């Protein structure tokens, strides 16, 4: 019996933007998926043999990299942070746009990074943060946080943070300001490399449907 294809998608804002793309690619989750009261994490779809799991963004990459899911949607920040060699990212979905940035208190005294040899940073992205500062010849001590990053400077945990920024409203509300951009981010379609070879007959057409869905979206945007 052929095992089902598992499609991992992230919770939150990216999910809201991904649903129209899923529809254009011919994938529609079951009704239970849309119920706010639902505690289920795995859902059937209108495509025979295809199920969707809804998990945290960082977990999408883990599920797909280890073959528990065969395909998924995740931000390019997650791909870069984990660097999984098992992942293939064939399509930029052109959704989930934001940036990974350094932020500090708006009223902080200026500090010359060129004269610093060590900085302390609160972040969910220790790998990308260390790499960013290493390129400047600076050693970064990363304090790993999974949320409420904006509290770190005001509570004395670190002078600066590295986090995702979209509008910048959350930073402003917490007395912080962007001081540098590490990378621009968008959501990508990812596929497990082994699955792409072993189950090409199922996965390649699916990848192509997403590629076509993105192109259709761009064409409509250009026409508008």
Automatic annotation (TrEMBL):
According to its record, what are the GO cellular component terms?
cytoplasm
GO BP annotations of the record are: L-histidine biosynthetic process
Q: Which Gene3D superfamilies match?
A: Periplasmic binding protein-like II
Q: Which GO terms describe its molecular function?
A: ATP binding; ATP phosphoribosyltransferase activity
Please state the Enzyme Commission number of this protein: 2.4.2.17
| Coiled coil regions in record | none
Q: Which UniProt keywords apply?
A: Amino-acid biosynthesis, ATP-binding, Cytoplasm, Glycosyltransferase, Histidine biosynthesis, Nucleotide-binding, Transferase
PROSITE patterns per record: ATP_P_PHORIBOSYLTR (PS01316)
Entry keyword annotation includes Phosphoprotein:
no
Pathway-wise, it operates in: Amino-acid biosynthesis; L-histidine biosynthesis; L-histidine from 5-phospho-alpha-D-ribose 1-diphosphate: step 1/9
Q: Where in the cell is it found?
A: Cytoplasm
Check the record and name the SUPFAM superfamilies matching this protein. Answer: Periplasmic binding protein-like II
Q: Which reaction does it catalyse?
A: 1-(5-phospho-beta-D-ribosyl)-ATP + diphosphate = 5-phospho-alpha-D-ribose 1-diphosphate + ATP
Q: Where is the ATP phosphoribosyltransferase catalytic domain?
A: 56-211
Q: What is known of its domains?
A: Lacks the C-terminal regulatory region which is replaced by HisZ.
Q: What does this protein do?
A: Catalyzes the condensation of ATP and 5-phosphoribose 1-diphosphate to form N'-(5'-phosphoribosyl)-ATP (PR-ATP). Has a crucial role in the pathway because the rate of histidine biosynthesis seems to be controlled primarily by regulation of HisG enzymatic activity.
Q: What does the similarity note say?
A: Belongs to the ATP phosphoribosyltransferase family. Short subfamily.
Q: Describe the protein's quaternary organization and the partners it interacts with.
A: Heteromultimer composed of HisG and HisZ subunits.
| Name of protein | ATP phosphoribosyltransferase
Phylogenetic classification of the source organism: Bacteria, Pseudomonadati, Pseudomonadota, Alphaproteobacteria, Sphingomonadales
